[in-house]
Write a structure and sequence with these properties.
4 copies of one chain form a homotetramer. The first copy, chain A, has about 350 residues and is α/β, with parallel strands linked by helices. Helix content of chain A is about 30%, strand content about 30%. In chain A, strands 14-13-12-11-7-10-9-8-15 form a 9-stranded mixed β-sheet. A 6-stranded parallel β-sheet of chain A has the order 3-2-1-4-5-6, sandwiched between helices. In chain A, helix 7 crosses helix 9. The longest helix of chain A is centred in the middle third of the chain and has 17 residues. The first copy, chain A, is globular and about 75 Å long. Chains in contact: A-B, A-C, A-D, B-C, B-D, C-D. Chains C and D meet through strand 7, strand 8, strand 9, strand 10 and strand 11 of C and strand 7, strand 8, strand 9, strand 10 and strand 11 of D. Chains A, B, C, D: Pfam families: GFO_IDH_MocA, GFO_IDH_MocA_C3.
Chain lengths: ~350, ~350, ~350, ~350
């Protein structure tokens, strides 16, 4: 059974520890953290886990796969070292704090022939998977546009702004659903509370197929919203993660264009049909994610959230940031949106 | 009592006829429409109203004030003629299909010393007025940003796209609330159903004070949303027009920044207080609007929704349209957002 | 075409006048009201309608069908006189203020071979009809129970208490859906604001098939609720009239009982399937109701809301009132619930 | 520090174990369960806890307080033995399966001068406490009535019916809020899925002050509802536990009765004011409950959910069950509602 070690026991690490311990598909054998208190807590809770304060010593243990849940700025160096040490690597989202670093990790994983996996957990959640199935089956027709809102009050992150903290989720969902990478994008935001860090932003994205997307993200909003609307030519879907009863609703609604019989105008008719909310199984995304990672390591399968996938997410964030409102008054820009 | 005549009995005109007839503040004496069937219907329902098929004859009657509810492309010519004939003018929103025409009407009204009023009805609705009071009182603190969503399925307009049809409402609300005109703006949209006409768009606006705003508008959305969120440094407000019980909710929530005592980081603390939903009186906006128009005509007061106000709305729409996504690939643009 | 006359232009009458005028299926020819102002208003709005202050004169006109929208206490006398004058009769709900009077009207209508119709408008509304279809099709399986809530603040009625004002709606819906009349019932309520008149009540009903029902009604409640839940052995339905988007939701949910394989306990398994909200056409119940009345008069068909149906509604209200809490301390009662 | 032992590690016990371990106010020293697997799990998770399979041995340990979380039918015997052994006792709700047994426990605790505490956890939850404060402060005026709904699909209990499983919560909340015990009550329900056990029921209660209450409970309902409405003469409150954002809403609404100036009718006017949702702290009820228990043991204070309180809850359930619909046809009953 795959021996897995975990690096980073801060905010998110303990959740990964729980599922690593819970899953019968892998063996949780080692943990690494600079902070001895964090380390103690984990090794006390999981007595069979060996604790390491030194990352090199950790890498020299018999762990076959390394799960990295440290601050974003450290992802690149830790993942690189783990790959070079011949380990499979699971790195929390985003894969790195720059697209160029992400690309280097992808190349390195190709060279070492080991799994490089990015922890975009939403991709393993039942509602996100259900919408993906609806899109791929053709039930929705051609996708016209996607609108995503992810706002609430807090939690401010100390190391990144709201785009890197929240849009990373929505961009990963978009790339997964649409299976393509945006060719143009822009961001518009404001640093309201702290002078250097945007806490609200609005993103525009355009995809090669012509689909457009919009993403509203905020740490400074009175009501919590986790709402996504996918509008297709045949059907429309609303995925509302705050709706505890029906997270995904499929609307049999649309507009039909009738060819004008003679020189008249185009006629539009509205199609108003039933709505249905498919039953969603009650699976834990994090457990699913870890077990998919283990399966990829053992069978050499390419992960749904591969290093390549994670790199595209980071590149998209970089692209939209190149055209933030702060640069509107720099007349040197030659186009509204940045292009990849 | 002010004698009022109405031009245009199509989709919206009958509503204006109803309140003109209902109000004790004015006398509804004349109606004008090219279509004899529309005209007949009105004069039968309001027997004291004289019907005119000819606009010139209508202008030569004893009406003192003219209410124009015709297609947008005709607003300019009809309003101009009415002003030149020495009438007060109420013209439906938007005031004209171009900022330059709007400006000419404003100048003309100044010259003739008559009231020029634009029918931005939302400005007279209880929840919009309540939010204005909250902003002006300082209860919300400094405004950080405003996010507005106005989406549903249909109704497609034959003469204008979704920006001119729906954003006109939100832009008027923004200008009223903030009391300033945006200095930068851009739009991003797509013509999904008909090749020439956008049915979904996302607008960005930036105001001189630094406030930013976002507006999502769509004719192609499965759920109807009429939601506006105003985030201030002290309090936050959600105005949801689809909530039949509590349209305005005021949240005593925010983020406080504590000065770092020594070389440490800034500390953020969240303020989570009560929410309250002020009682809103049950007044009809349209009736209020007409009675404000009548009062302006009679007392020479400047309307809340003056010609100047309506011109600024049209100029804002023109500004955002200058930077639509369609122009992203034209490398001749020198800046992301258009500037006034 | 059937010539129809309307009696009573108070609170509800003008709505009936509007649809009588609007429908192409009948001719609205006469109106009767004691109050000359009410009468004037109607005859001015509908100039072809002849106004009568005297009911006998009204009955001697050429009206073939009489629509009665007067206070409840007058229903019996007016309906009786109209039937005796050889007219078809539409009487607003409830048909009379006592079951015995309702029965006399039913007998009289049988004798005169004219239509006796009760204005239970909800029976003609799209969501109520949709639930009826779901029940009758067997889609819901056997019905276990129905729970109905109808509460809000106001409007207090001057002539009746909350049971006669609000439960009349829910009881009519229940009788229509289930096609049977309750054999037992009781009410529990309180007169909170006025000493003699209950403004909140809870009703229990039991039907011959074993189905039970509960009805919560109140004039004294802060949130408006119009919610009905029908629980069947195969599926469950929620009909929420306050939900502007999806009034009827069908849940493929339930509990299955597995026979114990050996001496063990019965095993229960939950069935959690999709939910769907059928599209409901946007028809006006009042217009449908009036046109069904006209069709019944002309074709001799028995109305869905016949005199017999209306009498059963009144008898049910009388039954539950016989066991109100006020009588709990009378030790002469021999059973908890009243029996018909 | 108080040494606490826990009996019963089934469905609910592990939650109690967690807070006993978490609280700095007590020492979690012993656990007792017949099932060695349950016991192993707890002692492995909390290595300092000593496990006992034998209840007598457990009682002979140095535990000073015993927390009982076993099936209802065993509450009486275990609590009795613990009290006789000189321990303080926390017993899960309901205190016993019969009022007579509850009374014996109360007497025994009085005699032994030890704390007898019943685990009615809702009484320690922030929204329930907030409503209690609103009632006690007089802000709501005189309470007219309370309506409580607690319905969802499952979980069927194997040992009790829906009244003992769900109404126990609502009755405890009612007794806590109103500070009085009902003098009359009745239940109406149906055993839909299993022939012997009611899975839906409707309860009526009347209190000495004249307040009435209604409770709808069901294991067989498609939507989850946890809604309580308290109607007072001055204000009204809705406590909706399913609302993740605002659980308690206070409405400044009501009806005023104006004395008739002369022989006229009473005039009613509606008061429609603001709504507000007080901020509720994010405290865990279970932890609060355990810490209140510890304080009572140590300081000899009478618990909010004392044995007396728990006995009144059980007596209320017994009272309403005496008049279930099943007994409607027994003509020997002399009154509609049972009296205590």
């Amino acid at each position: 059974m795959l021996k897995v070690g975990l690096v980073g026991m801060g905010y998110w690490g303990p959740n990964l520890a729980r599922v690593l311990n819970q899953s019968p598909k892998c063996e949780f054998v080692a943990a690494c953290d600079l902070n001895p208190r964090n380390l103690d807590k984990i090794t006390r809770q999981y007595p069979t886990v060996v604790g390491y304060r030194d990352f090199d010593a950790f890498l020299q243990s018999d762990v076959q796969a390394v799960v990295i849940a440290t601050p974003i700025s450290t992802h690149y160096e830790l993942a690189k070292a783990a790959l070079l040490a011949g380990k499979h690597v699971f790195v929390e989202k985003p894969i790195a704090d720059a697209g160029s670093k992400a690309r280097k990790l992808v190349e390195l994983a190709n060279k070492t022939q080991h799994t490089l996996f990015v922890g975009h957990t939403f991709i393993y959640s039942p509602p996100v998977i259900k919408v993906k199935q609806l899109i791929d089956s053709g039930d929705l027709g051609d996708i016209h546009y996607v609108s995503l809102s992810r706002v609430n009050l807090g939690l401010y992150q100390s190391d990144v702004d709201v785009v890197w903290d929240l849009a990373v989720h929505d961009v990963s969902i978009l790339l997964y659903w649409l299976g393509e990478k945006p060719i143009r994008g822009a961001a518009f935001g404001r640093a309201c509370v702290q002078s250097e860090k945007r806490d609200v932003a609005f993103l525009w994205l355009e995809f090669p197929s012509g689909i457009i997307a919009h993403n509203e993200i905020s740490w400074l909003s009175p009501q919590k919203m986790r709402r996504t609307c996918v509008v297709g030519s045949k059907r429309m879907v609303v995925y509302d993660d705050m709706d505890s009863a029906e997270k995904v609703k499929v609307y049999d609604r649309g507009v039909n264009v009738k060819e004008p019989s003679n020189f008249g105008e185009f006629q539009l008719t509205y199609r108003m049909g039933d709505m249905y909310a498919p039953y969603l199984e009650n699976a834990e995304p994090l457990l699913r994610e870890i077990e998919h990672f283990v399966a990829c390591c053992e069978q050499g399968v390419i992960p749904t959230t591969s290093g390549e996938f994670g790199a595209q997410v980071v590149e998209t964030l970089e692209m939209v940031n190149r055209t933030d409102v702060a640069s509107w008054n720099t007349s040197t820009m030659s186009s509204v949106g940045a292009q990849l």
